[in-house]
Write a structure and sequence with these properties.
This protein is an alpha/beta fold. The protein is built from seven helices and five strands. The chain has a five-stranded parallel β-sheet with strand order 2-3-1-4-5, with helices on both faces. It is globular and about 40 Å long.
Length: 189
């Protein structure tokens, strides 16, 4: 890949908890020289993690400061000409608009998502497989999210076709194929 032609952009690997965002995001970032991987979960407050661990879904009041911190970190890196891969649920249009603001030149206009330096890839995965993944990592102590919260995330997820979000089925797809599709998206940015 000719990374010298690519700079100052971000790809948000989005989806519900357990969809494979971190796994895919780390591999994509590893394929791009001078790329920074940001794990959205690392930006959650202790209070947010405690709520999710106690089967309490996050509210907008919980999520907005978290999203703003992700936006600010991404904006700084984009401004420095870096490529960013961000693993973040980004469940609603409103939440994605906050993340799009990482591109200082972005202005929300109808059907103008293509010009934004922040692109989104939604990993879609079978609900049963996601539930199994969340249960396993929760049981093994690898993650704070309670399996009981999966349905609340699925209920909140919204995608408007006008956003141009790339949807990838991560249920049975080969990781290499998924990564290649995302790398192609980065080349187009």
């Amino acid at each position: 890949m000719e990374s010298d032609k690519i700079s100052g952009c971000a790809v948000v690997i989005m989806g519900v908890s357990g969809s494979g965002k971190s796994t895919v995001g780390k591999v994509v970032a590893g394929e791009l020289p001078d790329c920074i991987f940001l794990e959205g979960d690392d930006f959650h407050s202790k209070q947010n993690k405690a709520k999710m661990g106690s089967n309490i879904p996050l509210s907008d009041e919980d999520r907005i400061p978290w999203l703003e911190s992700l936006r600010d970190a991404t904006r700084e890196l984009i401004g420095a000409g870096r490529i960013v891969v961000l693993a973040c649920s980004a469940l609603t249009i409103r939440y994605r608009e906050i993340l799009r603001e990482a591109d200082e030149g972005y202005e929300r206009k109808e059907n103008d998502y293509g010009r934004c330096k922040v692109k989104f890839v939604c990993l879609e995965t079978d609900k049963r497989l996601i539930a199994e993944r969340i249960e396993k990592r929760s049981t093994e102590g690898y993650h704070f999210m309670s399996p009981a919260l999966l349905q609340s995330q699925l209920d909140l997820m919204e995608i408007d076709e006008e956003e141009g979000i790339v949807k990838i089925d991560n249920t049975e797809s080969d990781l290499g194929c998924i990564v290649d599709r995302i790398l192609d998206l980065v080349k187009q940015t």
